[in-house]
């Protein structure tokens, strides 16, 4: 009986130790799990903070960097609008005055807007005139009217390229293209080319008529 009792006591001790070890293991695992959760929460917090800071940096960069559309607006003038560039404003004013003076047949002011070596290219293939020839053609007339509908300006230092769509009571949609050069501090027209845009749908018909007219 003593042996059995001893054996039972040993077994009981073994069971108790095993139970205690099991409880300790569970407690350790719970502690480790809690620590893991805290670590994960801390990592998640750091990750969220980094993302938020990154978002703020991207937003700040987007606000600080000029967009392509803003740059495009700086080099375009629609209708009577002007740009923020003083040179382009001055050049646009020269072109506006050109249309005004030609409508008023104010030839002194009109030709003062051109360089002395300026060139005017008219709608006829033969019309490539220097200022003397152009004045000889223009001064006997009562002028011509072209109203601005759209204009684009591209600046390269002291040179500005332009193209504009115009509306003429006599001819309808017209186009002017050319170059202005800063001369003695003022923008002067170095070349102006007037043309009549032809819709693609009737281009062959119109060019056929032009060919026939040239043969006569």
DSSP E strands, number:
7
- Average pLDDT, to the nearest integer? 75
Q: Rounded to an integer, what's the Rg over CA atoms?
A: 42 Å
Beta-strand content bin: 25-35%
Helical proportion, percent range = 40-55%
* H/I helix tally: 6
Strand order in the largest sheet: 1-4-5-6-7-2-3
What is the CA-CA span between the terminal residues?
143 Å
Unreliable runs: 1-28, 30-34, 36-40, 42-82
Using the alpha-carbon principal axes, give the shape: globular
Main sheet overview:
7 strands, mixed
Helix-strand sequence:
HHEHHEEHEEEEH
SSE topology:
Elements: H1 2-64, H2 68-74, E1 76-77, H3 86-104, H4 107-111, E2 114-121, E3 128-130, H5 131-138, E4 147-156, E5 159-168, E6 172-183, E7 186-195, H6 203-215
Parallel strand pairs: 2-7
Antiparallel strand pairs: 1-4, 2-3, 4-5, 5-6, 6-7
């Amino acid at each position: 009986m003593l042996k059995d009792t001893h054996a039972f006591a040993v077994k009981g001790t073994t069971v108790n130790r095993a139970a205690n070890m099991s409880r300790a293991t569970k407690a350790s695992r719970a502690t480790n799990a809690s620590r893991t959760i805290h670590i994960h929460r801390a990592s998640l917090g750091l990750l969220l903070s980094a993302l938020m800071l990154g978002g703020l940096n991207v937003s700040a960069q987007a606000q600080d960097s000029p967009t392509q559309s803003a740059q495009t607006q700086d080099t375009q003038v629609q209708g009577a609008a002007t740009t923020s560039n003083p040179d382009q404003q001055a050049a646009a004013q020269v072109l506006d005055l050109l249309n005004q003076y030609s409508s008023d047949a104010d030839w002194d002011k009109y030709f003062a807007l051109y360089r002395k070596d300026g060139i005017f290219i008219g709608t006829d293939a033969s019309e490539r005139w220097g200022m003397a020839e152009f004045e000889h053609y223009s001064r006997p007339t009562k002028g011509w009217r072209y109203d601005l509908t759209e204009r684009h300006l591209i600046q390269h230092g002291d040179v500005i390229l332009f193209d504009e769509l115009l509306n003429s009571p006599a001819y309808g949609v017209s186009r002017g293209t050319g170059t202005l050069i800063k001369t003695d501090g003022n923008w002067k027209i170095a070349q102006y080319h007037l043309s009549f845009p032809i819709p693609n749908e009737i281009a062959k018909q119109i060019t056929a008529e032009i060919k026939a007219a040239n043969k006569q």
